[in-house]
Design a protein that fits this description.
Length: 135
């Protein structure tokens, strides 16, 4: 019922000589799902990088309770600081890359949703098959 109503609405918006866009676009839905995964991963990684930044701030602001002096940058304090800094940088790079991939994949999904026919086809040939991409 919903599909018939949606097609009726879409066909009333389209020009007379154009076919209405189809509702089922498996490739577009797959791209949209992959984009959601990339964007969620980017958010989780950004939060993890923020946690490393908070660890760095905690280490830099730490005061010895007895002497009320900052901790010396040596030994375990130095190791913890350098580990948190290294992890934070790596996680930040992964977060940015995941965000970029999510944006590109979402753009591809939007492009695929606006097309009437699927742009990818598997065509049989005498020797096997050919994957065709129509852009």
């Amino acid at each position: 019922m919903f599909r018939a109503v949606a097609l009726l609405l879409l066909s009333s918006l389209a020009f007379a000589d154009e076919e209405p866009p189809t509702i089922h676009h498996p490739t577009a839905w797959a791209c949209l799902g992959v984009a959601a995964v990339f964007l969620t991963t980017a958010g989780v990684l950004a939060e993890s990088a923020q946690a490393r930044e908070d660890d760095l701030r905690r280490l830099a602001d730490y005061r010895d309770p007895q002497a009320a002096l900052p901790a010396h940058y040596q030994g375990t304090v130095r190791d913890q600081y350098e580990d948190a800094l290294s992890e934070g940088k790596s996680i930040e790079i992964l977060s940015i890359a995941s965000l970029a991939l999510g944006g590109v994949t979402a753009a591809v999904a939007a492009l695929l949703f606006t097309r009437n026919e699927p742009p990818v086809a598997l065509l049989p040939t005498q020797d096997g098959a050919v994957l065709s991409w129509d852009f």
